[in-house]
Design goal:
347 residues, alpha/beta, Rossmann fold, eight-stranded mixed beta sheet, 31% helix, 17% strand
Amino acid sequence: MMCTKRGQVRITLFLGAVCALVTAAGTAAEIDLGRAAAPPLPKGYESSAKVMAGIAAGELKTVNLAPAEMPEGTELRKDIVYGEGGGQPLKLDLYLPANREKPVPGLVFIHGGAWAGGRKEDYFIYCKHFVAKGYVCAAVQYRLISAATWPAQIEDVKCAVRWLRANAAEYNVDPNRIGVAGYSAGAHLAMMVGYSSDVPELEGDGGHAGVRSGVQAVINFYGPTDFTAEDVRDIGALRNLMGGKTYQEATDLYVQGSPLSYVTADDPPTLIFHGTIDDVVPISQADSLAKRLDAAGVPYFYDRMEGWPHVMDLAADVHERCLYFEDKFLEKYLPLVASEETQEGTE
């Protein structure tokens, strides 16, 4: 552990390419989550515009995002302060399951919105599902770029993980079984939490110093993975995240903000969802992540959805497929009943 990811940030992208050349000689890291038994992926579309047309015509059913009642016996505690960022309180919504007689896994959900918008409430539909199963769920806010630029966002969400671990006993969370999930920009932050657990300069000073921010599982819904790639580094939202600086002006920042810069063999298992016609975050970003995880030997599952765009999980049938794989993934890596291995503790 003396060779940390800090020393790898500049060279990992190159080394990953080298590792990819020898992947065929090793053991593939992709896991089996029962793809054959999953709800079938509906036939895709040629473009995002045709998806929207299908919704408008009533041909494509979408999930109901309207606020709903919490599952019986569960509890939602809103606006708990988990830390401080830029002198302002940072808040989360905590979803508590009905029965917490024994410690259960905790899940941290990070909203998207190009690091410029979105709300912690956006993840209600997923938190409701997982709290009903018995997980403690925390949907977190973080500083948007109107308040602070990179790396404030990763500092905040790492603080949220530390808060959950620091308060594990109070809420009956197993501190050795914490996962993180996000969509789009939130998925980028989820991956950064998962892969940069030993990079002190990204921890920030928002609170709970000395508490580990590492997690045991990552769920990535169509998040950007490599800010240095030619097909994303000139995107306006990314430039805004970097304080208006271009890739040429701040290459080090773009490398620092890329989850792929930190992938090593000891990183947590990862579940990936991405659509092939995503015109916000190119499918190449997920393809690159899968290759890098495979080369490093990190367990992963990649559901590459042909003919589906960004936020494809808003389609009801796609949403059900995603939940199926999420359930299987968490049953495997964050089971509600801890094994002896997880009880002994992990990073």
